Amino acid sequence: MADTGLPSGWELKVYMAQNHTPAARNDGAGQSEGKIRCSHLLVKHRDSRRPSSWREADITRSKEEAIQILEGYQQRIDSGESLGDIAVSESDCSSARKKGDLGFFGPGEMQKEFEDAAFALSPGQVSGIVETASGVHLIQRVQ
Q1: Which UniProt keywords are given for this protein, alphabetically ordered (predicted)?
Q2: Is residue 62 part of a domain?
Q3: pLDDT tier for residue 138 given thresholds of 50, 70 and 90
Q4: Which pLDDT score, from 0 to 100, does residue 104 have?
């Protein structure tokens, strides 16, 4: 391919994530009335709606195994490790590259089980295990 002088697709994605995605900003830009900001750690299982991730092309673990894995992460968080630091390498969500940060969202924008758990949290609080069609999550409310 000829060099057009434009950034490659990957460079563009990185640039956009760092400079234009509200989830990548820490200054509250993009926040609207009634919206909250959360990070999460997702472990998928074979019955998840899309049993693949950036970490594994074909996820074959059972839901029970996914819950056990998440319980181990929960213990690490309880011992002082941050959810975001664990998410970077362990989350099955593409938000892992942003320490699990999902940005701001309001009512009706997430799966009901996720939304119910997230809106019940106080800023800084981490949920227990939350099951959705995507898999099992730990959610931390940021704002």
Answers
A1: Isomerase, Rotamase
A2: yes
A3: very high
A4: 96
| Nearest CA-CA partner of 82 in 123, 143, 39 | 39
20 catalytic? Reply is no
- Do 99 and 87 meet the contact criterion of CB atoms below 8 Å apart? yes
Catalytic position from the list 38, 39, 40, 45: 40
Q: Establish whether 143 is a catalytic residue.
A: no
Q: Is 103 domain-assigned? A: yes
Residue span of the structural domain in which 123 resides: 31-141
Asked about 137 being catalytic, the answer comes back as yes
Q: What are phi and psi of 136, to 5 degrees?
A: -115, 140
To the question of pTM greater than 0.85 for the whole model, the response is no
38 is catalytic: no
> Catalytic: which of 93, 95, 127, 140?
93
